[in-house]
Queue: 2 jobs
Job 1
Amino acid sequence: MFDKILIANRGEIACRVIKTARKMGIKTVAVYSDADAQALHVQMADEAIHIGPPPANQSYIVIDKIMDAIKQSGAQAVHPGYGFLSENKLFAEALEAADVAFIGPPAGAIESMGDKITSKKIAQEAGVSTVPGYMGLIEDAEEAVKISNEIGYPVMIKASAGGGGKGMRIAWNDDEAREGFQSSKNEAANSFGDDRIFIEKFVTQPRHIEIQVLADQHGNCIYLGERECSIQRRNQKVVEEAPSPFLDEATRKAMGEQSVALAKAVGYASAGTVEFIVDGERNFYFLEMNTRLQVEHPVTELITGVDLVEQMIRVANGEPLTMTQDDVTLTGWAIENRLYAEDPYRGFLPSIGRLTQYRPPIEVAAGPMAEAGTWHGDAPEGETAVRNDTGVYEGGEISMYYDPMIAKLCTWGADRPAAIEAMRNALDGFEVEGIGHNLPFVAAVMDHEKFTSGNMTTAFIEEEYPDGFEGVTLDDGQLRQIAAACVAMHRVAEIRRTRVTGRMDNHTRRVGNNWVATLQGEEFAVAVAADQSGADVSFDDGSVMRVESDWTPGQTLARVSVDGAEIALKVRKITGGFNIRFRGADLKVHVRSPRQAELAKLMPEKLPPDTSKMLLCPMPGLIVKVDVEVGDEVQEGQALCTVEAMKMENILRAEKKATVTKINAGAGDSLAVDDVIMEFE
Amino acid sequence: MKDILNELEDRRNAARMGGGERRIASQHAKGKLTARERIELLLDEGSFEEFDMFVAHRSTDFGMEKNRPAGDGVVTGWGTINGRMVYVFSQDFTVLGGSVSATHAQKICKIMDMAVQNGAPVIGLNDSGGARIQEGVDSLAGYGEVFQRNIVASGVVPQISVIMGPCAGGAVYSPAMTDFIFMVKDSSYMFVTGPDVVKTVTNEVVTAEELGGASTHTKKSSVADGAFENDVEALAEVRRLVDFLPSNNQQKAPTRPFFDDPARVDSSLDTLVPANPNTPYDMKELILKVADEGDFYEIQEDFAKNMITGFIRMEGSTVGVVANQPMVLAGCLDIDSARKAARFVRFCDAFDIPILTLVDVPGFLPGKSQEYDGIIKHGAKLLYAYGEATVPKVTVITRKAYGGAYVVMSSKHLRGDFNYAWPTSEIAVMGAKGATEIIHRADLGDEEKIAQHTADYEDRFANPFVAAERGFIDEVIMPQSTRRRVCRAFASLRTKQAKMPWKKHDNIPL
């Protein structure tokens, strides 16, 4: 076995590889750019070598720099992680030349699977199902109809030179094919000056399902089941799970066997992934093969108990696989949510900066990994597993130079509902502050009916959140839970206030038992009967909720038992109550005495200012330049001002034609998010 | 006998109705609560004891003798906030527009005198149309009496003003002399001369909101220390502030039970200061992580944001925080920030509230406008305030402490009790580049040499150790242990005794 390996990557994947290497008794070498000098992977590795400035093309993907680091450290093998150099044939070759093992597939496999057309051809030859289509020149509409019939409806008629939906038609029958061919051709001729047309199968209700394969250098290859990654935003996977709620055993077997055939066809040796698109009838078609460790590999590990990184290292060391296909069993269900530093309330705009708070839920070991002894670290054992693969820490930084991923939070349960429920709770207990992040969004997905029913396609986010994400509305039962919890918490905080020094003896304040909680536009009048261990909160409809918690004022995470249900609330104090975040909802909860509540009702409801006629600062930054003056008429797209943030100059442009009525900031002003820069009419 | 008792109740009920249902409804329609409703929200439930419910004016001009409502437009008395006594007056806009008559002023004076005598804060809820014109000079005399009491009470008991409606003309000068002014957004304004007069005299067209609304006074003029969304929130926040303040200048600030370990280590602070000395970071994060339970009551949040002022608790006891904010103007000192901090430091000193100063200051803001507007005198206010303060003073330098600004920010030389520095601090006469260009003027043309000199200067002076060698820094501390170190420092200073020589009063550069 290797004594020392170098990880040519950063962030969570570097940390994850280090964990396995450490377990195997292998020393690790990290590489880092200037931006990562304080990064977690650098702290975790046995050695760390600086490889240059922050941009990846001056550090992490410069082959020479990695080769130098290998030489300097004496590492015998390199794990490339994903991204960066992981699917770079030249890198694999450079390592081979230097007699350093590449913990990944042979260069030839990388090359042949790296090209879309070649890979599809090889797949076809290996008997893998590919999207049926006709690539040759199509003469006329009648030929188009004939070909469409051969492929089977529905079909997509596409311009060879097409893009952006232009020259593209979907046909469900002969008439539509005939007509679609003609209009596509015309459009293509007009738009691209190239009227060549091809036809391929249109995949309805597409789902993204991929097969994990594992092959050694001795010709053995197995598949480790599938992962479903249909929940994507702009081709970026957000939620993954294993197994897929959609596949049956026969389809799984067929996909698995075809994937193994493909891996063998290219002489694959390492962990790899064959991606398929699957339609509503469970027809599956090859998309591409990823010749590396996938981001979402933990869900496979969680249901198989196989440490994929360990297997990759062993394969690279020339060891034969110690398991056969029959040894592979899929047990329980695993879900992964990718936490990104992207603000869901602002169109998923990347939000970089300092993690002022980063407190992931406590990891819990359970399921196949716990049983197989492949669990990383010493998490306590439980019924459902929580695994958090991360490369950051509280006080760390999400850098503008790299992928804005904060963590991969995974849960495992005996079945899908258990895994989902574990994920909901894990998300509720995950505290991330300082930057915008998609935690509320993935929490919302976990409660979405289409997700819980397993009935999703790759269009899920687009279809269910067409106007972006605006938070979640909680149901009556949840509101009551929160109201009861907040009243109990508020009461504790108020009683503490009465214990201040300097009170008038015998005239101290008595904190009452009747309260009114207002949240999400609902009002709950309750009476509290507190005892040693908690409180009974009675609602005016006669129902009573038992609340118990060890929460004390100042804690940002309240673990509360409401009628025996354990919930975790993210708590921030606001005037007269709390800001609560729970299950993707973000709401203000006011707790008032009945009289206070009565008077509060007299307060005018202030509508938030109409920001449609304002230019708001999209990020904290410095105004470098204002391009317009009061009274100017601006056109859509016209530059209004330049804001510098994180060394980047961002030009803010007019969204529509308008007249500038007021300018509130000038060059040199530093602004916070949502500060009004100028107003229009 | 029963009739007499009934008559009392009847009279009370009439007084409680203030200006009557119609005017109460009109007050509510403006989004404002009545004087009595406000008192209910300000004080502990049922704790209000009223004075002078039946006081009526004695004016006989302009037919005023026919309109003598009980209470005369202001409700006064005392009650408790979380069991601690406070005196309160609440002007009743529904009664003669809350206008100030001689008797109205007398009522206010009475509770102010009581407050000073008994050592409890005075809270004024202002909602008044101004002087009662019918009374003429009697009304002015009333204002004068109140002003005089504001001055006498200043530094003896905390005085808090909440502007919850109009406050115009001479009336503004009573709040102006109190310790804190809060406003309610959209329903309050303050100005010496209103939009009509402004228009007549200067031809400027301006709305009351623009001229003296909450936004103007919290962001531009700094007259107000904070603004809140509505009456309910404003009064809740005043209660919260009172929890921080001592009742008078003879008592220690209150303490309350706390749920935060004074020895809590926060390793994320080790990465708070960025590697690049020119990259800003948010000093508020340090304040929140040092404070008990992350609870911070900020004063003048929207004004001179390059300086942060406010109250926190450490081990349950109130501490005033003054901090440079590197996020704004690199945290430099300028006229506004010096004035803001100076007034805050003096409040803390007057009421025996220990001061924690967090320093990252590159110096004074240069420029013509600063010099023309008197940065010399305004900067001196902060220097003066720190130097005269005898309360416990703990200072933590996180990064830059350059030049005169280093001395100003509660340095050892101004009798700082504990002066800590993080390893990232640079205590020097100025930044390395500037210093090099002066010391090595001869090499100015040679970029390479200047770079070398700069690097040498950084090595030698861009650290806390030169100052620590001289004892100007008591200890260089790990950022993560800041809370523990500061808590212990203040704990050791609970018995601090420091005196100034007798003087009639000082002569701070106003």
Job 2
Amino acid sequence: MATASSIPVKVKYPFLPEAREEYRSRGFTLKDFDDPSLKPIVDRAVERVINAIKFGENLDPWKISEDDFTEIASFPLAVVLVAKVGDNFLKKRFALTEVSMIQKRLMNEREEDRVKLILEIAKNFFKMDVEYGELPPPYTFTIGLVDYLKLASKFNDPAWKLVNRIVVKGRVYVEDRELIRLIRDKLEEHVIKNIEEAEKEVTVLPKTLEEAVRIIKNNLPERKIEEESIQMVSRPEAWPPCIKTIYAKLVSGESVSHFANFMMASFLLNTGVSIEDIVSIYSQRSDFNVRIARYQVEHIAGMRGSRTKYITPSCSKIRTNGLCIENGRLCGNVKNPMTYYKRRLREVIKSDKDKDEFPGKRREASS
Amino acid sequence: MVFLTQKDAKFVEAVFREYYNKNVDKVYTPEKIDEREFGYFPFSEKIMVRHLYFDTEEKLKDFLKKVVPLHVYHSAAFYRYPSAPMEEKEWLGADLIFDIDADHLRTRCRREHDFKICPECLDVYGREYERCIKCNSQLIEVEWVCELCHEAAKEEVYKLLDFLETDLGFQKIKISFSGNRGYHVVVTDENIRELGQLERKEIVDYITGTGILFEYLGLNIESKKKMRITRNWPEVTDPGWRSRIAKSIVKLVIGGELEEIIELPGEKKIIEKYSDILREFSEKWSEEIVWDSIPTPLLKILGKAALEYSSAKIDVVVTSDIHRLIRLGNTLNGKSGLIAKIIDIDELEIFDPFYDAVALPMDREVKIRVVKTPRFKFSGIEFPEYRNEVVKLPLPVAVLLISKNMATISNVS
Ligand code: SF4
Ligand SMILES: [Zn+2]
Ligand SMILES: [Zn+2]
């Protein structure tokens, strides 16, 4: 197995400018990949994507191709392929896999190399307000308050809460591994942005790459569209704005806080959606883990642990967690999202009936 | 109505009008005025008029002269379209604002100087009453602010400033008196403008000590005695919360203020039980705390008390609300007739609202019927207690008492 120090930096961190430079310097265009001599690069790119689908975060970061250039070039090519497959789940999954490998590789570097690389990535590449300094152990870096808050305030672990950090004159002390964790989120955004750019730029693919896209598509997991059954049971038209917002984030694969997950799951359960169907919403997420999702949803449903079925959190609780939309302005003074739902549901059902009674009438009439 | 009688409202409005006509240039203009939303309460109604927009200082000032607001506010936020409805304003950022109000500070004096009044009979009631016994009118609350209240609020401002400067490293900090019971602190460092609700909430939690876990401070108070982590105790020389907790524990123990902070009877009992140890500590500790000698139940209480003692009592909703309106600096506050004065940090210590925030002329006298007041000092003059009597008082004092519903200009003959 390769170790961190024996592999060149540009191979391990293919998003860095020096890797991109090396790729660009050869002057390839996408058409060139029809040339059989470049087949190893195409194969490696396809493998990168399929590995992401299969292994996700568990992918071994040291299983890479023997040839440095093949490894370097396969990254931008894989980005193009993912873009052309055009699947949101794959986009997130690919980004997640690549950045989790980068995280592991960084952790594996020798201390001094790690410091250099972190500064290179955080400061030079992402223009983050990060400094390395003589700090009381275990701290090694400081981050400017604003940058820290932007990256860390979405985490639920109390260790990330500002109040539990050492903050001196606007600088937050962090350990290597913590900074790497924060960089990881920036990287994920970066990879996704690359994919989205490729989506816009790349129009036609040469034959070989078309074939590669087809192979990847065949490897995509079959995801049943359980969204439909959720919509049958719990009428989304009647959901309050806070729930709609979280749901939209969930299906687009964005990460939401633990509280938001709890709120969503308990709301759906209370509107009669089955545990199966709720777990399936989570299955569309790139960081999905069936076992954990099922466990958590079952817990909320009261099948595990305390066995009390959780009621949906109140609006004031939701408000303190910053998830209420426009301070409830759109919800007419309800105290709980379920109340909003029940009220709206009545209207929705009534308008269904109206539609049935006047089949000729257009939709506007009911809204 | 905000005042006891229509005549009172008309009177105060005339005084405010004269003030704005002569002194409108003293009004503060917020940075980027053309990206702010303005709002105000008129004298006539209890409804705030919002979504106003002034692209220049002059227009704002003309408006104040013409409309004469009871209270006037501007948004901490910057918007592309400040006068559009909320959904269409396009939020561009916001100053970071803090509100400290003596009202939230549970000062003990409140029980003595706050009361309720019947707007019809002008009878005085205790705070527990809802309606007048004679005429069944809804009673009005009267809230006085004494020196103790003012000083308590100031104390919190100092704590807040220490968090903002020493820990969070903010550079541009503006303080103003609210014009009534508290202070506003505004951070205008450019890089904080884009912080969203979630990030602001983290700052709030830092300042109020919300969600703090003692084990991160080296104070493992949850676990059993034998499992206690005894290394890494917080030291007074440590940065941030660690030193705050250490310093506060020393202060509480040596200064004997512990009993004042502890309110739960169960905790009081524990304090009593360890009173000998505490006495011994207060003799032995000067700067260094002998952590190992503190029994766990006591440590737990000390930790909690130190947290309560060192956190700053800010209004948590105000700071996380990115659309909040705040009082326009150097304008009259309709609850007092005092000015919401912008203060230099160095002036804060000697700032006396009943002296430095007086904006109306002292040399004019007005005859009013005073229902009830405590003794107080205003603009260097001592005033005695008044109880249902007609007196001639300097204009700013009369406006203060009328605005607080403690006096009326009606029925003076
Ligand atoms: S008021 Fe309640 S239901 Fe409406 S958005 Fe806020 S939290 Fe949700
Ligand atoms: Zn009465
Ligand atoms: Zn008082």
